[in-house]
Design a protein that fits this description.
2 domains, 14 strands, alpha/beta, Chitinase A, domain 3, eight-stranded parallel beta barrel, five-stranded antiparallel β-sheet, globular, 6 helices, TIM Barrel
């Protein structure tokens, strides 16, 4: 039976919360700056072990990828990181070059690289991250198609604790994000009938507004995250990104294991 691997994206200031859990931190502390050069957050928390999470927000697309990738490798080696997560929101040729070069450099060192689905073709040895949140279709089919496209062993699932309010009809498939407080307010005020979608592995309810008409609210909780894990495992997926901000309240429910007292990892 394959063993699950949980990578937990977490900012440096919350790193202590992972002590005692048998998980691998993914440090939300790095971004691509001008040059390009590697920039790290100014936190005084020492980072050691786990993965680097690399953010592309603010990158201007200028400069050579090769020297930047060497910066990433040196930082990973200095911090004893075992890989990186490329949290790229845009698709740009310079970022594609970085993904391809890091894929090759990391593979030589037997390090892990996780990339967004749109970068899967650039990094043939990397894990390809599929988000768990859907507004339509089927999660099982989504993972099956990703496995057929990239290879089942390359697929990783990013667990997302989401809540969105959709106007009906919703041709774009995009809703208005809700905070957990806003979701609770709607549930408490409306007392709606809540249903579970087996295809989306999410809960939902509908309501009518005098001002904006029909609405459809889709949301996650600990139970839906567990169902998404089950679907992923049946699809042969055993690598998970689980942001601490989303899973902290459900860590034990999701099967994250505690380390024995003598086996705590140094973070």
């Amino acid at each position: 039976m394959s063993q699950d691997t949980f990578y937990i994206p977490v900012p440096p200031q919350q790193l202590r919360a992972l002590q005692g859990w048998d998980v691998i931190p993914a440090h939300l502390a790095y971004r691509i700056g001008r040059g390009p050069h590697l920039f790290r957050s100014g936190s005084s928390v020492p980072l050691k072990g786990g993965l680097m999470v690399l953010d592309d927000r603010g990158f201007d697309g200028l400069g050579a990828a090769g020297s930047f990738c060497q910066e990433v490798v040196r930082e990973c080696a200095a911090r004893n990181f075992s890989g990186a997560v490329l949290d790229f929101e845009r698709r740009m040729p310079p970022l594609e070059k970085m993904a391809a070069q890091l894929d090759s450099l990391f593979a030589r060192r037997n390090w892990t690289l996780l990339v967004p689905e749109t970068y899967g073709h650039c990094a043939p040895q990397a894990k390809v991250v599929i988000p768990s949140a859907l507004s339509g279709g089927s999660l099982a089919l989504r993972l099956q198609e990703a496995g057929e496209r990239f290879g089942r062993d390359r697929v990783a699932l990013s667990l997302q604790l989401t809540a969105e309010d959709f106007f009906l009809p919703s041709p774009s498939g995009s809703g208005v994000p809700l905070t957990r407080g806003e979701l609770r307010e709607r549930l408490d005020r409306m007392r709606p009938s809540v249903f579970f979608s087996h295809e989306l592995c999410a809960r939902y309810f509908t309501y009518m507004s005098r001002d904006s008409g029909a609405h459809f609210v889709l949301f996650d909780d600990g139970d839906t995250l567990c169902r998404k894990l089950e679907v992923a495992r049946r699809a042969g997926v055993h690598t998970f990104l689980a942001p601490w901000a989303d899973v902290e309240d459900y860590a034990a429910q999701l099967g994250l294991k505690r380390l024995p007292p003598s086996g705590k990892k140094a973070l």
